[in-house]
Design goal:
Layout: E1 4-7, E2 10-13, H1 22-37, E3 42-45, H2 79-88, E4 92-96, E5 101-107, H3 108-117, E6 126-128, E7 133-139, H4 147-152, E8 156-158, E9 163-165, E10 170-171, E11 174-175, E12 177-180, H5 192-200, H6 202-205
Antiparallel strand pairs: 1-2, 3-4, 4-9, 5-7, 5-8, 6-7, 6-12, 10-11
Length: 216
């Protein structure tokens, strides 16, 4: 990973401590280390020091993205490596999907219905995006999402070849947040077949006359 920044006078080594509030940086680093320790492959993403500020960490970055082009080769499940990377800069925390953990993204209304059908023991981590959708984290496997989920629940599977932001990563000052917090054993996610079964029930995909606003 290249930790150098360009200036008008040439290229210089990036400062070790950018101007970002210490508590926010510490929280981001703690999340990256915790996820790596529990087997989630994490990678550094670009970041902002101020709301609507420039995206830093990669030359020419126009938004939230991995800091390296070959990001599939720049992931880690080693907590010591994660500690080193996120100590150098306050990178966003991104998850490399397809290597143990995938994400299923749905509109909030469908997320409410699906979550209501899952018992606490069946629930994996669920995040709320700044755009109103929900991310259900599920175990990677070879079973695809059933066609009716994409057609009726507008579900999108993020699997091998995709990456996802992990809370407290933010875009334009708007953070991703946990709707169902990660359990202490953060590597455990429900299998996709169970998720398919839950979502294939009519009540999970059938449009409602009125969708209550998310409490989040």
């Amino acid at each position: 990973m290249n930790d150098r920044a360009d200036t008008a006078h040439g290229t210089r080594t990036a400062p070790l401590v950018p101007g970002i509030p210490g508590l926010a940086w510490a929280e981001t680093r703690a999340v990256a280390v915790d996820l790596a320790q529990h087997g989630w492959p994490v990678l550094p993403g670009t970041y902002q020091l101020a709301e609507h500020g420039a995206w830093l960490g990669r030359s020419g970055a126009a938004g939230l993205e991995p800091v390296t082009a070959l990001w599939q080769l720049a992931t880690t499940t080693n907590p010591d490596v994660a500690m080193e990377w996120w100590t150098r800069r306050p990178y966003s925390v991104l998850l490399a999907c397809g290597a143990g953990v995938d994400g299923v993204e749905v509109p909030a209304a469908h997320g409410h219905r699906a979550l209501a059908q899952l018992s606490p023991a069946q629930r994996g981590p669920v995040a709320v995006t700044p755009f109103g959708s929900w991310l259900f984290f599920v175990r990677s496997d070879d079973e695809p999402l059933r066609p009716e989920l994409a057609a009726n629940a507008h579900a999108q599977l993020h699997a091998s070849g995709a990456w996802l932001p992990i809370p407290p990563t933010a875009r334009g000052g708007l953070p991703y947040r946990w709707r169902v917090p990660r359990p202490p054993s953060a590597g455990r996610c429900p299998p996709r077949p169970r998720f398919n079964e839950c979502w294939s029930r009519r009540s999970a995909v059938e449009p409602a006359a009125h969708d209550p606003a998310s409490p989040e």
